[in-house]
Amino acid sequence: MASTTIKLSFFFAITLIFLQAVTPLNLQHPLDPLTKEEFSIVQTVVLHKYPTSKNSVAFHYIGLDDPDKDDVLKYETQPTLITIPRKSFVVAIINSQNHEIVIDLRLKTIVSDNIHKGYGFPILSADEQGVAIKLPLKYPPFIASVNKRGLNLSEIVCSTFSMGWFGEEKNSRTVRVDCFMKENTVNIYVRPISGITIVVDLQLMKIVEYNDRGIEAVPTAEKTDYRFSHQNPPFGPKLNSLVSHQPQGSGAHINGYSVSWANWRFHIGFDARAGIVISLASIYDLEKHKSRRVLYKGYISELFVPYQDPTEEFYFKTFFDSGEFGFGLSTVSLIPNRDCPSHAQFIDTYIHSADGSPILLKNAICVFEQYGNIMWRHTETGIPNEFPEESRTEVNLIVRTVVTVGNYDNVLDWEFKTSGSIKPAIALSGILEIKGANIKHKDEIKEDQYGTLVSANSIGIYHDHFYMYYLDFDVDGVNNSFEKTSLKTVRITDGSSKRKSYWTTETQTAKTESDAKITIGLSPAELVVVNPNKKTAVGNDVGYRLIPAIPAHPLLTEDDYPQIRGAFTNYNVWVTPYNRTEKWAGGLYVDHSRGDDTLAVWTQKNRDIENKDIVLWHVVGIHHVPAQEDFPIMPLLSTSFELRPTNFFERNPVLNTLSPRDVNWPGCSN
Ligand SMILES: *[C@@H]1O[C@H](CO)[C@@H](O)[C@H](O)[C@H]1NC(C)=O
Ligand SMILES: *[C@@H]1O[C@H](CO)[C@@H](O)[C@H](O)[C@H]1NC(C)=O
Ligand SMILES: *[C@@H]1O[C@H](CO)[C@@H](O)[C@H](O)[C@H]1NC(C)=O
Ligand SMILES: [Cu+2]
């Protein structure tokens, strides 16, 4: 016994040494998010050049500098034959100048350090917002306004709001600060203190503008608290329990940030700005005996939320939640058994603070299988004396994060189906943006309130949510084309049929970017990304089709300032040639941007997109006319789209997929 133990522990020790020597470099995928150690390297390297004893330094963005796509694709086939430089891209405001710094994380050196001189500012840091929201509470004019309203200063909390750009020449990093009552409720957003304008200059970190236009009622706290502990009976309806148990364990295997599940393989990245990033999604083809790539990369590039109240109180509320606040920085920890089912697996990641320190984000992502739908079925009633019936259970894999930017919670899913579809889905919850008004009943409304009276003194302001998805397709290879197949009515005039009309299809391949600017809903069409170099046995181009979300089109005029900045919503679909730096549809610097670095501007070059590495951009929009059910907290409002194989496989790829084994409960045997 003793000698065995010694041998075993000796073997174990050797293995450990071996693992320690090899693990850090070899197990890290080139697209893995920055580690805690790498954030610290960035911090050390930058602060070595710009010590805080002599400089003011604030890190507004620290992320992975995208490795060369060719290199990543080589790594996918031969991971051991290629060493990819591991670099970080940093945006820091150093002594009031906007630096773009690239750092080699292995050599721990600065590769480049440039100053951005154009318009726009980087993502706001949580740290500076945390300081700004405390300024009003010590500002005598604000305290006077509070007293005038008879409010309790100790029960007030404030929040920062990006200000956009409305044609002004002045270029300063300002935010508006609005304040709310937290008295008797944590639902602060439904208790705004209306009528006050506060502007804070973040560089000076002081209030530079203050205006009190008069008193509007602060809506009551009564029945607005959403915490269970603060609600009163009756509770209902009563819901029954479900046990979710996977006797064979999860089908999803997570190795670091790489996931394999059923016939899919993909990588989950995470970025302070983009939040979750899905890369290198490939599906195993049972007939061709190989994995075939579908998507090189997918993430939400921007979220534009313009409110529709043009008054002093609200006009500037035209938010770009990714570029101004950071989807990664705003990602919240998922609540086990509530946000994700009990059988979910969780992934942690790191973000960073303004001083460059890594911050652990626990349970940032969950991965779980979802059961219960039909994958395919048929009951054959047409054969006498036989009764064939066949049905298969669908099992899908969901990858989920929740991004909470102020009042709104965005539940963001990537759903993978064994049939080859990828379904990105969005569900919104959280709190409406409310304006206080001296109105208790609809009959008292004399002029446009720019929203719905959802409760006494509470106007839920009209607004939109436009999510811009970046989808770098690699359908069975890098070079793809974008095809629009229109459904056209044909009239029969020659008497050749008893019919007077029918419809057929007409396919056009987009040659340049302007051919691929699509407004969905005007006329029926199939939008397909094909690989013109790969055909099925019967000769169709292999492809993936976009089944778009219910289309939403912007209603602002094209010359309106928010729409110039959000011009990427002018079409529902765009296609561009892949360009490593064209990542952010609203521009790299969005706070106070002037719309000179948007997708709408890049595509004016009208570049060739045929048989090239292309990126498809899809706008998923929701026009939101608030209703009383959205108050005091909103039940999920969802939308989704589908990327669906279209002549990609030779036949139904799940013909031979068996339903999961039936399990009897209790006892879990079958
Ligand atoms: C104001 O709020 C504070 C903190 O909740 C409380 O302790 C205090 O009693 C309140 N003052 C008044 C006048 O209600
Ligand atoms: C893609 O097309 C370009 C020309 O546009 C060509 O240079 C390149 O070799 C092609 N790449 C692949 C992987 O076929
Ligand atoms: C990539 O995009 C940037 C920004 O739009 C542009 O300046 C650059 O010319 C583009 N590169 C290529 C090769 O098109
Ligand atoms: Cu909304």
TrEMBL record:
Catalyzed reactions: a primary methyl amine + O2 + H2O = an aldehyde + H2O2 + NH4(+)
Record-annotated Copper amine oxidase N3-terminal domain positions: 122-214
Top-tier EC class: oxidoreductase
Keyword Signal: yes
Keywords: Copper, Disulfide bond, Glycoprotein, Metal-binding, Oxidoreductase, Signal, TPQ
Signal peptide: 1-24
Residue intervals of the Copper amine oxidase N2-terminal domain: 29-114
Post-translational modification: Topaquinone (TPQ) is generated by copper-dependent autoxidation of a specific tyrosyl residue.
Gene3D superfamilies given in the database record: 3.10.450.40, Copper amine oxidase, catalytic domain
Modified residues (2',4',5'-topaquinone): Y408
Iron among keywords: no
Family: Belongs to the copper/topaquinone oxidase family.
UniProt xrefs under PANTHER family: AMINE OXIDASE, COPPER AMINE OXIDASE
Name assigned to this protein: Amine oxidase
Gene (name only): LOC101491799
